[in-house]
Amino acid sequence: MTTSRENGSLYTNIENKIATVEFGHPASNSFPSVLLDRLEAEINKFSENKEVNVILLKSEGEKAFCAGASFNELIEIDDLESGKKFFSGFANVINAMRSCNKLIVGRVQGKTVGGGVGLVSACDYAMATDAAAIKLSELSIGIGPFVIAPAVERKMGVGALAELSLAAHEWKNAYWAKEKGLYAKVFDSIEDLDKEIELFTEKLASYNPDALTQMKKTLWKNTDHWAHSLYENASVSGELVLSDFTKNALAKFKK
């Protein structure tokens, strides 16, 4: 368990072969870099834990699932190296999720933006409530969802990636996301979601762990190059965030 208002929180526990990882932050469950580092470390740790068959990824509260990367950190970037490092945070987590030996189930209770969409896309199976709308708003501030784009495209297809990215001002509802393959199921309430999550993860965790690991490898076939390409994409974003366009856009958002 780790907690602090500025750095957010990360709670983990293991029960019945299910490792629950719950992140939180006062700013709509957004991710400062230190919280992304902790999430990456927990996923890597559970990947090698023989007491874990399945990982459940969730966020705290009943509102937003994840508002993406920390806005406060984003506006402080002033050089290429720090820009690349900032955008590599989600690359590190997505690669940890990709290479993890355990299947990862996502519980999405509310709206999700930017990097949060990347996290859900990197889950092997995700369920949501009907409040779990999604948006990729990066182009509206002069950058793009380049780091998470491979995960989104793999899960939803290039057409959905284009629709999300180019209509950067539009929310897509949970049923649209389900139709495109991001969510397996959508529920009317958090209570119904949690009932199904409990049933599903317990059933999944009861299966042969070796078969689960092999299934994980099958699902992520032909993605080994992400170990390099996601960081190349982070460099693109790191350069764009230094542009006058983006600096001006961020200043307007700050106001």
Please characterize this protein's 3D structure:
The strands form two sheets. The protein has a seven-stranded mixed beta sheet with strand order 1-2-3-4-5-7-9, sandwiched between helices. The protein contains eleven helices and nine strands. The protein is globular and about 55 Å long. The protein is α/β, with parallel strands linked by helices and 255 residues long. The protein has a single domain, classed as 2-enoyl-CoA Hydratase, Chain A, domain 1 (Alpha-Beta Complex). A hairpin with a 3-residue loop joins strand 1 and strand 2 (8-15). It has helices at residues 33-47, 71-74, 80-99, 115-122, 149-156, 158-166, 174-179, 190-205, 209-219, 226-240, 244-254, and strands at residues 2-4, 8-15, 18-24, 54-59, 103-108, 112-113, 125-129, 134-135, 185-187. The mean pLDDT is 96. Helix 4 (115-122) packs across helix 5 and helix 5 (149-156) crosses helix 6 (158-166). Helix content is 48%, strand content 16%.
